[in-house]
Every structure is written in C-alpha cells, then in structure tokens.
Design brief:
The chain has helices at about 5-35, 40-55, 65-85, 90-110, 115-125, 135-155, 160-180, 180-195, 200-225, 225-245. By secondary structure, it is an all-alpha fold. It is globular.
Amino acid sequence: MIDIAEWGILWPALIAGLLVTATHVPLGMQVLERGIVFIDLAIAQVAALGVIVADYAGWSPTGIAVQVAALSAALLCAMLLTWTDHRWPQVQEAIIGVVFVLASSAAILVLAKNPHGSENLKDLLSGQILWVNPGRLPYDALFYGLILALWFGLRERIGRIGFYVLFGCAVTVSVQLVGLFLVFTTLVVPALATFYSRRLRLFKAYTIGALGYAAGLLVSVVTDLPSGAMIVCAIVVVGILMALVTAPRAST
C-alpha cells in the first residue's frame, strides 16, 4: 500500500510528468515528421552542459543564472541546427549526432574534477522526478502553456527557426525537471506508437504519456526501484500496447 507520505511525493512528480507530456507529444510528432528524432537528445545535452558549466562557475543551482545559462546554450544549439538544416539538410541527422556526442564529452570533461560529478551527470540523464519542488510547478505550467499556445496557434507560421526555438525552450526546462532519458522517451515513444494510427492520434499519444508516467511512478514506489528508468519502461510498454490495439490492420 502507498501511504500519505508517499502520495505527497507522487503527486508533484505526476504533475511534472503530465506537463512534460502536454508539450512534448505534439513537438515529438513534428520531430518524427521531420526525420530528426535525435534533435531532442542534442539540444537537451547542450542545455545540460549549460547547467554543468554554470554549476562549475559556482552559481546557485536554483538561481536564475543557471536557467539563463541552460536556455542560452539550448537556443544557441537550436540556432546552429536551424542553420545546418537549411545549409545541409541531407546530413542533418548526422550533424545532430555529432553535436550530442560533443556536448556529452564536454560535460564529462567539466565534471571530471568534481567529486560529485558522476552523481550530477546521473541526475541530468535519469532525472530526479520524485523530488520535484511543488513550488516551481505553477511557473513550469505557465511556461509550458505559453509554448503550447504558440505551437497550436502559430504552427503554420513560425517556420523552421520558430520550431527550433520553441523546442529548445521546452527541452531546457524539461531536462532539469525529469532528466534527459524521460525527455527523449516522452518526445519519441507516443509519436512513434501512434504513427500509423492517425485517427484521434493526439489523444492516443497523450494517453500513452499520461498512463506511462502514472504506472511508472506507482510501480517505482511499490518496488523501490529508480523512478526515471521505471517510467521510461512503462511508457514504452504502454506505447507498444497502444500500437498493437489501435494500428490499422493490413487488408488481405
């Protein structure tokens, strides 16, 4: 059974997961349509590098300076990928991969002399969703709401640059909220699982994300296993089930 104290931990984590799902599902569908599925890994890793560098400089991890550093790094990466997408579209996926590996290696180098470096890197990758600060959730909700309003209201007019900027902003906040692995999973799995089921696709994709976060959190608390990894597995399982149930049958 889950006691009151555990519910007190679960509800902020679930809200954080639902907020990430709300923005990342439609953005993930666009990522899949563009054929650049690893862009989120690259931009998220660059944002994480911004956090690591800010921490190395001695700035408070909860201060505005760290947020500015992370967002600036992500936006610079988004602008770079916008330019390369326009200049060399045929090899954009390879460029994204190089950016990810470079940012990851730079993060490892910066953390090499930090006694807590491996722990910090683990937190940025798998996240600490169970320890989400409830006080920051209203601000995150407002931020994500603005991104959704811009996406659904101006999607046809924002163009390539607008997409990368919105994507960079969303990923910057999300990677600090739930970790890199969950950001990637929430972007790709719901969009991939519903790719061949276009009827009510957005609803199905949101269902995958919501059920995945809820089931993963519950199982992680009951089994005392890492929440981030458990949620990733839960979203993938729910996505597979949704694809099997809703995918159109081939005609004979």
